[in-house]
Design a protein that fits this description.
Distance between the termini: 79 Å
Largest sheet: none
Structural class: mainly alpha
Number of strands: 0
Strand content: under 5%
Radius of gyration: 30 Å
CATH superfamily of one domain: MetI-like
Shape: globular
């Protein structure tokens, strides 16, 4: 009986004399994607990079602003310098110098934010209900959508005079104007999102025995939620941009009223302070809404 001794087969060798395993290891170690060391540095983090770019853009704007204000003779009415606006903001931050009309600029801002919050809450609530109804009931959408589009295209000042005539000059016309500005965008976007629900999802809901209300609650609303949140974000931005118009008449206290009153007296530095306060607070509100929307609908991206 002959005994056959088995020997392990040698690994295949390529033309360069390296085994496939060695080639794979070498390739992975030399790969620029998997084997490369992460970059190190102050701006290696995407968050830090974004912050750095935005800080640089703000610095560039301030530099251009300072350059324009420094040309020729100083003119605080037409070209207030960044330093003058900064000192004005500091002076209006406390009551040491009397503030503006008896309040600091941030107290005026708080009053305006309360108006915006109440008006936007009313407008968005009405817009959501109306948009959902328009998306479900086609004849209602055909009848109401042109009216909403007509109102949405009107600047707030176009109908603010009528609101004042009908409701006076107290808080009611201001809140109503902000509500009117906020309702149409979210209603139109919600109606479009509801009607855009994929048919496959609707048929799947019906196939498992969901009633009409069950389909709306469990299929239509979750499907439309990302677009609805975008509509809310748009409505808040439109309402907030209308705060100066809402505070045109009897707007003090209020940041928009402060801007309009300072404009009447050619106090440009105070006007710029008000504009900065409105812009920065609006940016923070928009960022907060985008943050919440990204957490509520993580499957969709938000800028």
């Amino acid at each position: 009986m002959s005994t056959t001794t088995s020997h392990p087969r040698p690994a295949a060798v390529d033309a360069a004399g390296a085994t496939p395993a060695a080639v794979v290891v070498a390739a992975s170690s030399d790969s620029p994607v998997r084997g490369a060391e992460p970059p190190h540095g102050v701006l290696s983090s995407p968050v830090l990079r974004r912050v750095g770019l935005r800080a640089a853009s703000v610095a560039a704007v301030v530099l251009v602003w300072w350059t324009i204000s420094a040309v020729g003779e100083p003119d605080p009415t037409l070209r207030p310098s960044p330093a003058l606006v900064w000192h004005t903001m500091v002076d209006l931050s406390t009551m040491d110098h009397g503030g503006y009309n008896g309040l600091t600029w941030w107290q005026h801002l708080q009053v305006s934010l309360r108006r915006v919050l109440l008006g936007t809450a009313i407008g968005v609530s009405v817009g959501l209900v109306l948009g959902l109804a328009m998306g479900v009931i086609t004849p209602l959408r055909v009848a109401v959508e042109p009216i909403l589009t007509f109102v949405r295209n009107l600047p707030p000042l176009a109908y603010f005079s009528l609101v004042v005539i009908w409701f006076g000059i107290d808080e009611t016309p201001k809140i109503l104007l902000l509500a009117i500005a906020a309702a149409p965008p979210v209603a139109v976007v919600t109606a479009g999102a509801v009607t855009g629900t994929p048919r496959a999802l609707l048929e799947a809901g019906r196939s498992i025995g969901l009633s009409r209300s069950g389909v709306i609650r469990n299929v239509v609303v979750p499907s439309a939620l990302p677009e609805v949140l975008t509509g809310i974000r748009l409505s808040v931005a439109i309402a907030y941009s209308s705060v100066v118009a809402a505070e045109t008449i009897n707007g003090l206290p209020g940041i928009g009223g402060m801007v309009r009153d300072a404009q009447a007296y050619n106090n440009t530095a105070v006007v710029v302070v008000g504009i900065i306060a409105i812009g920065v607070s609006g940016l923070l509100i928009d960022s907060a809404i985008a943050f919440v929307a990204a957490r509520v609908t993580p499957w969709r991206g938000f800028a």
